[in-house]
Amino acid sequence: MIPLQPLVNNFLLNYHLGHVLLFTFAVTTLGALPLKSQRVIAVNLVVFGLIFAVAPFSTMSAPYILFGLVLIVVGPLLWTMAE
C-alpha cells in the first residue's frame, strides 16, 4: 500500500498562498455570475483586492500583490457603473 502523506505533500508543495487566493477568487466570481449583479461582483473584487494586498509578502510573489491593488481600483469603478 502506498502511503498517502508523501503524495499529498508532493502535490501541496508546488502551491503557495497566492495560488490558493487566486483559486478562491475565481470560484467566488464564477459563483456570483449567475446573480447577474454588478455590485456583487464589485464587492467581490474589492474584498479579494484587500485580501491580496494585506496578505504577507513572504508567502506569495509580487504579481499577486499588484493584482490585489488592481482589484482595489477596478472594484469601485465597477460599483459606480452598476445600475
UniProtKB/TrEMBL annotation:
Top-level taxonomy: Archaea, Methanobacteriati, Methanobacteriota, Stenosarchaea group, Halobacteria
Start and end residues of each DUF8006 domain: 1-82
Cited InterPro entries: DUF8006
Keywords associated with the record: Membrane, Transmembrane, Transmembrane helix
Name under which the protein is recorded: DUF8006 domain-containing protein
TM helices/strands, residue ranges: 12-33, 40-58, 64-82
